[in-house]
Amino acid sequence: RLFWKHRSWLLEPLIDAEECEARVLELVKAEGSKVCNGKVTDVMVLKAAQGLSTPVGCTGLHVAAVPALLQSTAAPQTFALLINCTSTDVPNHEGLASQYLHLPVPVGDKHRLERSLQRLLAAINDHLPHGPVCIACDTGTNVSACVCVAALVLLFTPEHVFVPVESVGPETVQAAGGTKARIKHCQMYVASSVPNACPDRNLTKQVNRFFLTSATHGAVNFAGAP
C-alpha cells in the first residue's frame, strides 16, 4: 500500500538504491512503525507488550515477571518465544507466544544457570529472527537480565545488532570473544534499558564462567541442566 501510494517519489530516476531504501524507512516511520537495527518492528507488537514486559533496547529481547504474565490479557502471539525461568508454569502461554520454553533456574543454585545457558541461547538464536523473545523470571530483573547479557555477548555485535549463529556450542562460545570488558559492556546496556535490573551476584558469576572459562581453557560447561 505504501509503495503504490508513494511510488513516484520512491522511484525517481535520479536516486540510487541507498536513497530509495532511506525513503522507504522514512515512510515506514511516518506510518507509525519503529525501525530497530535496520529491521521494521510493528509498533502494535511493542504496544501489546507494554506493561507486560520491558524491551532491552531495540534487540528484540524482552524481560518480564512471571506474576505479570499470569495476569496478562495481551494480544495473542505477542512473542515468538516465551522463556520461563521460574518453577511456576504459565498456563496462558499459548496466548502470549508462538513457542514456550519452561526451564527453571533457581536463583540460589550455583550452577544451574551456567549449565542451562546453552539451551537458553540456542532457543533465542532460533526464534529471535521470527519475532521478539521474552525471558521471564520471578521479578523480571534477575535471571532474565543475566540471560539477556549472555545473549548479547554471544548473538549480537558490540553495536547490539543481532547476528544469528549456525549453532550454539563450545566453539561458538569460544569465538564470541566474551572478555570481562565485553560482558561488562553488555551488562551496562541491559541496565540502561531495564533500570530496575538487579542481577544476583551468584548468577552474574555463572555468566562470567560460561564465557571466560571457554576463552581461557577452550572448554565450557555444557552439562545438561537437571
Automatic annotation (TrEMBL):
This is Rit1 DUSP-like domain-containing protein. Pfam families: Init_tRNA_PT (PF04179). It comes from the Eukaryota. GO terms for biological process: charged-tRNA amino acid modification. Residues 100-210 form the Rit1 DUSP-like domain. It comes from Eutreptiella gymnastica. GO terms for cellular component: cytoplasm. PANTHER family: TRNA A64-2'-O-RIBOSYLPHOSPHATE TRANSFERASE (PTHR31811:SF0). GO terms for molecular function: tRNA adenosine(64)-2'-O-ribosylphosphate transferase activity.
